[in-house]
Design a protein that fits this description.
Blueprint lengths: L18 E3 L5 E3 L3 H10 L3 E5 L3 H9 L4 E4 L3 H4 L11 H17 L5 E5 L9 H15 L3 E3 L4 H12 L4 E6 L5 H4 L9 H17 L3 E5 L3 H10 L4 E4 L7 E4 L1 H4 L17 H18 L10
Parallel strand pairs: 3-4, 3-10, 4-5, 5-6, 6-7, 7-8, 8-9, 9-10
Antiparallel strand pairs: 1-2
């Protein structure tokens, strides 16, 4: 699918294709912004998960994930905050560095995208560019993500004009949770749905290479997906998007008490980890760990 007239062409330099030579002499093509758009054109679905640490990044990369999002959701699942708002830019840089190193130590294929945290891009386009530059330079990530539609479009343009790829985020935007007042589905009425579709087109024109669509009706998400030439990645937005993203901790079942409708648990690791720790505690207390073969 080629860009239509009036749509802004992204800087060529962010479409570079990178290959990594592995020890078994197989060449793995690194996931890039250009490749993500090509996948949409070919009808190939994009897989994305959040990630916050070195070890998990390596496991996910070797498993074949396309994109790792170092989400500001680390504020919730890693630091225990109620919302995403408290996490700082320095903390996001710390987590992103670890994820980039993890991917580099594995196959090196996954694209790493870093969330721009609350108030790191809202004050001005210049401030946003400075902070996006810090994320890129200090971490080695491949793109940044920020929330918002028309209000953020000029900021997206400013950042992409500098050669930094930007993923947009529409629908339920967690950094605005106090404005919304709840985590309910967004854009259910015609007026908000129309605004969201317009916002999607504005972000595409501003240079965004992809969009996250969070917790919106699946019919609207499908409509947005067919209306823009850049990939859409859904979370609670139905199967009509070009890809899907989940929070890693939710997908792995690390919190049995958190089961929103849009999450499919592919494992139940909370129980697995709990059982393993209980067996360890029992073995230590009974003196059966360590045994002779585990001692020097």
């Amino acid at each position: 699918m080629s860009l239509t007239s009036g749509q802004r062409v992204l800087p060529t330099k962010i479409f570079l294709t990178v290959s990594t030579q592995l020890g078994n002499n197989k060449t793995v093509r690194q996931m890039t912004t250009r490749q993500a758009i090509e996948m949409k054109e070919k009808g190939e679905k994009i897989s994305m998960l959040t990630c916050y640490d070195f070890m998990s990044a390596g496991i996910l990369d070797r498993a074949g994930i396309d994109i790792l999002l170092v989400g500001d959701s680390a504020s919730n699942v890693f630091a225990g905050h109620e919302t995403t708002l408290p996490i700082t830019l320095d903390e996001m840089i710390y987590h992103t560095k670890a994820v980039v190193r993890g991917v580099g130590a594995a196959s090196g294929r996954a694209m790493v995208i870093a969330d721009m945290p609350f108030m790191s891009y809202q004050l001005s386009s210049e401030d946003a560019l400075r902070n996006a530059g810090r994320l890129m330079k200090e971490t080695g990530c491949h793109a940044v993500k920020l929330e918002g539609g028309r209000v953020a479009s000029q900021t997206v343009k400013r950042i992409t004009d500098a050669g930094i790829p930007v993923m947009g985020h529409l629908g339920l935007t967690p950094q605005s949770i106090y404005k919304f007042g709840s985590y309910k589905v967004r854009a259910k009425d015609a007026a908000e749905a129309g605004e969201l579709l317009t916002d999607a087109k504005l972000l595409e024109e501003a240079g965004a290479f992809a969009l996250v669509l969070e917790k919106i009706p699946q019919t609207l998400a499908s409509g947005v997906t067919t209306s823009v030439s850049i990939p859409t990645v859904g979370i609670g937005a139905g199967a009509g998007c070009d890809g899907q993203v989940l929070v890693l901790n939710d997908m792995l079942g690390l919190n049995e008490n958190f089961k929103p409708r849009f999450v499919r648990q592919y494992a139940k690791l909370e129980q697995v980890i709990s059982d393993a720790v209980k067996r360890y505690v029992d073995d230590v207390r009974q003196g059966s760990f360590p045994n002779e073969s585990e001692s020097y």
